[in-house]
Design goal:
About 35% of the residues lie in helices and about 15% in strands. The protein is an alpha/beta fold. The chain starts with 15 loop residues before the first helix and ends with a helix. It binds flavin-adenine dinucleotide (FAD) and iron/sulfur cluster (2 copies).
Amino acid sequence: MPNMSLNKVPMPEQQPNIRNANFEEVTLGYTEEMAKEEATRCLQCKHRPCVSGCPVKVKIPDFISLVAEGDFEKAYEVITSTNALPAVCGRVCPQESQCEAKCVRGIKGEPVGIGRLERFVADWYIKNGKNNVQKPPFNGHKVAIIGAGPAGLSCAGDLAQRGYEVTVFEAFHNAGGVLIYGIPEFRLPKSIVAKEIEKLKQLGVKILTNMVIGKILSIDELFEMGFEAVFIGSGAGLPVFMGIEGEGLVGVYSANEFLTRINLMKAYKDDYDTPIKKSNSVAVVGGGNVAMDAARSAKRLGAKDVYVIYRRSEDEIPARREEIHHAKEEGIEFKFLTNPVRILGDDEGNVKGIECVEMILGDPDTSGRRTPKTKSDSNFVIDVDCVIMSIGTSPNPLIRTTTNGLEANRRGCLVADESMTTTREGVFAGGDAVTGAATVILAMGAGKIAAESIDKYILSK
Ligand code: FAD
Ligand code: SF4
Ligand code: SF4
């Protein structure tokens, strides 16, 4: 008999007033008993609706039934037959709008905790698994990958499994993309990402860091070096600003810069020497997951007051509900229906406040979201000494402007068809570089499709 409890087995987590002062992981993961209990909530539906919600088609009921039986090693094999980074996805996938959104248990009560179970299995394997990764024999073909984020790494893993010699060229000094420099340690420990990347290296994937393609080497040069195809997974890391007065003041950051200083350069550790202003009062402008990460990080760095300024209402805010809930618990204050109009500075050029206006919601736009409009004579100032802009990012133009034949759309995203083939022969692209800022699992799905297309392309030459 399945366990008909309406609620997921709760996930242990650090207390809000303790965790908002440290960078340790907030959620602590299931024990074996908790995982088995949650797994018995799965009805093993014949039509497997949950699988259709997963961009990489994890065989969800199969792995969950193995968890219920206690065969965690086999469950891991089932998950990794389609998903190269399960410890990452179990933590950061927006499950509520993907696999769990389709789970029938969600019709009445909470869906099965698919993400929590995936994370449990991946963490169990890291501690206890046999780790018997075998490097497949070389098939005689070489492929270059630009960018070691989820798109590039999943493409690299799939090609390496097919026997390709794969070299990943990464601009930063560490592999992982946003998983390393964007998503904070308290949501995704970097040791977990490093372990997932280690498995790819065991498959034979070579990762060369500090290699900015478009500067150190061009795509033409990669072809001259004997690579038969190139995959571009360079993400969308170029921050967008509002264009308001005061954005050049000391104490204004883009969320990407702020989070990179914290994550990649460990600005929160006393024994690391990364310049980051310790602020007393911080305004984060924007309402996505990136804004939540920036606000929660600012709090952990010691800010007394942290405000999230968002121009629509709580109903429209795009961040995951779980992240908003965690942020509120940790003492972040939300200023909904509020929009900044200028940032105020003191005589020395430091931020001293942010002037905002109140907003009201008008009719829905073409995307169905209600358009915010300024309420007249509603200006007010919030005293802050740091402003973090988190209103979006776009792809860096470096690669497309240094490569002939690569087309981009008006948002600067590379043009690629459903098979991830670009407008330049032998060049494939996927992830945020093509879609604009999206999700880890969509980037990984694109990397997988590209690997398939690259395989077909090279073998048909
Ligand atoms: P990226 O992860 O950006 O990786 C691109 C890589 O290419 C980088 O390592 C970059 O250094 C490298 N690169 C760029 N240019 C060059 C070049 N010229 N030469 C060589 N290398 C280059 N998604 C979720 O699903 N869940 C979340 O909870 C979530 N939270 C997020 C929080 C933050 C703060 C941010 C910024 C994003 C978040 N996302 C989340 C989005 C998700 O991380 C991205 O959609 C995903 O990482 C995109 O993967 P990618 O491989 O396309 O690009
Ligand atoms: Fe769900 Fe993401 Fe796992 Fe797919 S990869 S089953 S969407 S948590
Ligand atoms: Fe199990 Fe939910 Fe998938 Fe049905 S839809 S098989 S209950 S996880």
